[in-house]
Amino acid sequence: MLVNMREILEDAEKNHYAIGCINSPNEETIRGLIKAAEEMNTPLIIDHAQVHDQLIPIERIGPLMIKYAEKAKVPICVHLDHGSDFTFVMRAIRCGFPSIMYDCSAMSFEKNVEELAAFTKIAHKLNITVEAELGVMSSTEEDSHGGKPLTREDIKKSFTDPAQAAEFAERTGIDALAVCFGTMHGIYAEEPLLDIERVKEIRKQVNDKCRIVMHGGSGVDADQVQQAITAGCSKINYYSYMAKATSKHVWEKLNAAKGSMFYHEVQEDAYHFIKDYAQDIIKMFRNNK
Ligand SMILES: [Zn+2]
To answer: What cofactor is this protein dependent on (predicted)?
Structure first.
């Protein structure tokens, strides 16, 4: 069943668990993620990142994601991840995406407010939910989002300010806000250290129609992830570590078989691995519930 974010995130926050939001740039990943969610009877968000559009354009992968979501036995939200230009966001809407992240975090605060307020007004008329970002979500060197390497001290400078987050949510009417408190995109160079108190303060100050989102969830230890959920994060973006683990698994399989596998067997094996991996993520995000 295809849903938007609002239909699933409110319950998550109320019951102190988080819903995974995982990139799905090919059919094996889409199948693996949805099957994992179905077997565990839990909602899930699958997303297409604008940076993956060079890999496969949204007009090809988008309709496939939506078709799988519609047929799923559990609520599946199909979401645009880091749509950073208006034309691209419009392409996602044309493909039928019920949920959009319009990321104007590189702009000034006022410009970010202006863009998101105007966009959210239109999106809500179409029953499309909107996620924005405040602060600058840092990226590690090894990152499919194409970022620059940063140290822990560097990323502290771009942490989200709770009062500004509250003002932003109020003035834009957005459904979800990605905040920065120590996570990064990609593979971590050093153990991430999350500012959990900041998440609590953001949750306290931001209006209750807006959910709090953590990006860069993969590579963070389960204890910190669960503290972030308890502090108020109800949507967690997760991808890099799963994608790397899948490649490693395929590499081991191919090594063991001395390269003698049919390509369709490799794909099918990756599908099963992704399904199992996604179930572990879902368990972690359940926060012992
Ligand atoms: Zn992100």
So the answer is: Zn(2+)
Q: Concatenated DSSP letters for the chain?
A: -EE-SHHHHHHHHHTT--EEEEE--SHHHHHHHHHHHHHTT--EEEEEEGGGGGTS-HHHHHHHHHHHHHH-SS-EEEEEEEE-SHHHHHHHHHTT-SEEEE--TTS-HHHHHHHHHHHHHHHHHTT-EEEEEES---B-SS-TT------HHHHHTTPPPHHHHHHHHHHH--SEEEE-SS--BSS-SS-----HHHHHHHHHHS-TTSEEEE---TTS-HHHHHHHHHHTEEEEEE-HHHHHHHHHHHHHHHHHTTT---HHHHHHHHHHHHHHHHHHHHHHHTTT-
Ligand 1 center to residue 91 CA distance, Å? Answer: 19
Residue 141 clears pLDDT 60, i.e. is over it: no
Q: Which residues surround ligand 1, an ion (CB under 5 A)?
A: 215
Choices 3.20.20.70, 3.30.43.10, 2.30.110.10, 3.30.470.20: CATH for 2-285? 3.20.20.70
Average pLDDT, the chain: 93
Q: Respond yes or no: is residue 81 known to be catalytic.
A: yes
